[in-house]
Amino acid sequence: MREVIFEQTSVTNFTVQEFGNGNGPIVAVTAAVHGDEQTAIHAAMLLMKELEQQTINGRVKVIPVCNPASFRNRTRVSPFDGIDMNRIFPGNAEGSPTMQLAHALWLETRDAEYLIDLHCIGAGGTTYTLGLYKEYPEIRELAEALSLPIVIQSSGVRGQLFVESCQAGQKALIIELPAGQPGGIIDIPAAEECCRAIIRSLHHLGMVDASPSGSSVSFYDEITTLTAPHPGLFIPKATAGESCVEGDLLGTFEGNSVIAPFSGVITTVSPPRYCFAGESLAGIAPLEKSQ
Ligand SMILES: [Zn+2]
């Protein structure tokens, strides 16, 4: 038998890069659980370059492409079985290819005290930290250490790597980054800032000397998504990352105003396009209600 290899890229393995000396916390950084989320991949690549320059107390494990088949396919889900991997953790060693992959990733990240999972929100989105900060004070602290300006409470849908990791006693959250969809596009400045944010968190944990400056942090409640009530043309009039007050114009849908239903921060605004019923026009998160 001869094996004919026509492309170097393997789609049934993933690479783990490790940095540090092991005398401190273990931090896992994962990207491309959804393979088309390339701003996340690029942030992980930049982070690995930066970590090569640093003396690290502890260990940082970076998995820059968690889902190689969906990366190669430029799709959110794996072409093997169409399963959204970030709904099925901890996976299943006896299951479909994506179930097995999730299980392998789960095992690979069990030794980490902290887990930062990098994702993308798509074109028209902005960077934010997403976590269960209300349930876990340590997540609030980690989000503050990242010093990205927007922190949003997650709805905590089960099967996500960070949610299941929190359930398992780890300190885990997501950084959502702009772009990714469509087609795996990269927002370069967002990837660079994400890399700096992770370095800031490592500094907070006493793992690196470098301490790039960050932003003050605001905490928000869960996102409300405004969706198209029927097919029609959406034209954006606002930009993700901006604050809004109730009544602000976010865009027009079939010529009618789409307004902010409450004050908060805009997390996404659809690019101009003909939308179908149920598709997202904009996302808004209200400031955290005072305790
Ligand atoms: Zn994702």
UniProtKB/TrEMBL annotation:
Entry keyword set: Hydrolase, Metal-binding, Zinc
A molecular function GO annotation: hydrolase activity, acting on ester bonds
UniProt entry tagged with the keyword Signal: no
InterPro entries attached to this UniProt entry: AstE_AspA_cat (IPR055438), N-alpha-Ac-DABA_deacetylase (IPR053138)
Cofactor needs: Zn(2+)
Domain Succinylglutamate desuccinylase/Aspartoacylase catalytic, residue spans: 24-182
Name assigned to this protein: Succinate dehydrogenase
